[in-house]
Structure formats: C-alpha cells, structure tokens
Amino acid sequence: MKLHIFNPGHDIALAANDEKMTAPHAVRQMQMDLGFIPALWADNSDYILVDDTNNTIPNNGYKRYLHNHKYINWNDLQNINKEKLEVSPWGWDKTIRYKLSVASEGMLDSCMPDTIQLDKIREISGRNWASQNLLSKLLDCDSTCIGKSTALDDYEKLMDVLDKSDNGLAYQYVLKAPWSSSGRGLRYVDLQNEGINEHLQGWIKNVIRKQGQVMIEPYYNKIRDFGMEFTAHKNGEIEYLGLSVFSTSNGAYMGNILAPEDEKEELLSRYINPEILVEIRKTIALIMNGKLKGIYSGPFGIDMMIVNGGKIHPCVELNLRRTMGHVALDLTRKMTEKNVMRMEFNAGHYSLKIKK
C-alpha cells in the first residue's frame, strides 16, 4: 500500500535545500488544483494526500480514468496505518520529508529516506552530476549525439570560457542553475549584442553563491523536445518505460502527446534514425544500473532534444522523480486513440486537460 503525494515544488525545494522552504504561491496553487493526479497511476488500495479532500474530482474529462482511491488530508496522517506503507511523493527532498514528519508526528519517519539518502538524491538530481555521469558517456552512442555542459564556480572563470564567435543563432550560450524548476533557472546569453549585462552578472554571482556553481552550455537550434522514462527498482535494476514527446515554452512544460510507442517513434524518425534511440536507452540503463540502489527507487526521466541537422542531445537533464512523461504513459495505457495532454492556467487555477 502506498501514500501518494503530488508535490510540484520538488525542484524548487532541491534548489533551496531547506526543509522549511515555502514554495511560491503559483506552485502551492498547482499542488492544490492538481493534487488528484496520483489517482491516474495509484492502485485502488492506495492513499492520496491532498490539501482539500473536497477538491479531488476534476471537471475536465479525467473522471473515467481515475480509480476509487481514498483521499486524505494532512491532518489524517496521524491516524494512517503505517504497517507495510510506502510513501511515494512526486519527488523526494528535505521539504516534503519534513512536512510529512511534522504532520504525522514522526510516525512516517521510518517510511522515508534519511538525511544521507536525501543528500545523495539531491546530488544526483543536479545538472553537473548528469553532465559528468550521463552526457559524457551518451555522446559515444552515435556520431549524431551532441552536447556539452560545464560547471564553473567562479564568475571570472566563466567569462574566460565564453567565446564571442557568431554561431548564426539568436544566442550563443545557455546558463543554468544546477538545481531549478522548469524555465526558472535558465538564462540565455547573446554575446553579439547585449552580452553579460549588470542584471545577468548579478544572477550568475547569486547562483554561484547559493548553489556553488553555474552550468554553461552551448545554445542549440532545437527542433523537438522529447525524453525517455524509466523506473529504478529497489534491487538497483533499471527498467525502460517509454518515450515522452512533449512541448515547452521558455523552458516551462506545456503538454505531452498521448500515443502508442510506435507512433511516437515514427514522429521522431522524421528527424533522426530511431535505431539510435534504442542504443541511447540501453546505454542509460547500463550506466544507471546499480547507481541508485539504497538511495532511490521509483520513476525517473531524462529530457532530450533533437537539434537542427539531425543531431540528438541525449541528456539535457535528469529528473530523479516522477515526470509528466510518466503521467502521459499512464494515461496512454487507458486510451484507444491518440490525444494530447496539456497543462493550462486560467482564472488563477491550473488544469490538466486531454484534447484531440
């Protein structure tokens, strides 16, 4: 039996690395509005923790895909039966562990990762870990695989690395905070025009001060976002689940295609040789096999992109948590026709909608 929690502030919590972190209002609103979504993959006997048990059934066509779960609120945690209970949040961080511990008066502590495990989860979730342990090895999968990511811990060192040559694109570089939520921790650099202005300089120095380093990557002419979804089993083995073909706007998630694997592969094959995807996912499973044992078990995903010229960036980032790609895979299994899942924000509220 599992206790599921949708905590969309996970990435922000990793960046803050503070158990008492308070998420921005928009993130808290998303958690309130979309707290029901674990019902799309949870078993019938599972619990789903929501902020308001009276606000659990969405009016957007999802009802037929939801099971009859037991929704509980934070006050109910003191009375939950923890025997054989597995706590399964969207992602593990110090903040969610602290909130669950306080609300349950310590009853759930033995069901959650300890401090050492949380520190390791945060480390592996960082962009520098993915750069060193995944990207560098995935580049050997095929000559069409590209990507470069460098961690720098000093502003002057960063300025020395930047090349002002014109690459024919709108930007030359993307600067990234090692830990950040989608779209929030990115800055695009155009050295041909504005360059590093005072505001950007302040952002770079602040990221280095708070997180110890900043990531610098070339700016690529992206054609298509996609990803691969996996799950890590408790014995350390890695299982491939499927492709995620999604869209973003300024780095923020917008939606996923809900379609069988062969249709998603056919879509990507318009730009690349799909056989390379098989090699990439096999290599990921090989690299990650055993690395998460005793640290993390559960879903994770790796974002990728197709770049102009038939190139593949095989590891834009590693998400050591459940992703919207996993949600899309769960929904696709319950459907008989192709659809699109979109995240929308209207009148101060978030919704997840299925469209033709």
Give structural notes.
The longest helix has 14 residues. The model has no long low-confidence stretch (mean pLDDT 93). The strands form three sheets. This protein has a seven-stranded antiparallel β-sheet, sandwiched between helices. Strands 3-2-1-4 form a four-stranded parallel β-sheet, with no helix packed on it. Strands 5-8-6-7 form a four-stranded antiparallel β-sheet. The protein is an alpha+beta fold. 29% of the residues lie in helices and 26% in strands.
Radius of gyration: 20 Å
Q: What is the H-and-E element order? A: EHHEEEHHHEHEEHEEEEHHEEHEE
Extended strand count: 15
| Major sheet size, sense and barrel closure | 7 strands, antiparallel
Biggest sheet, strands in spatial order? 13-12-9-10-11-14-15
Provide the helix percentage. 25-40%
**Percent in strands:** 25-35%
Low-confidence stretches: none
The whole-number mean of residue pLDDT values reads 93
Rounded to the nearest angstrom, the distance between the terminal CA atoms is 34 Å
Tell me the number of helical segments per DSSP (H or I, 4 or more residues long).
10
- Briefly note the structural class of the backbone: alpha+beta
Topology of helices and strands:
Layout (H helix, E strand, L loop, with lengths): L1 E4 L4 H7 L8 H10 L12 E3 L20 E3 L13 E4 L4 H10 L11 H11 L1 H12 L11 E3 L2 H7 L11 E4 L9 E4 L8 H14 L2 E5 L3 E11 L5 E12 L2 E7 L2 H8 L6 H14 L9 E10 L3 E9 L4 H9 L6 E8 L2 E7 L1
Parallel strand pairs: 1-2, 1-4, 2-3
Antiparallel strand pairs: 5-8, 6-7, 6-8, 9-10, 9-12, 10-11, 11-14, 12-13, 14-15
Helix pairs in contact: 5-9
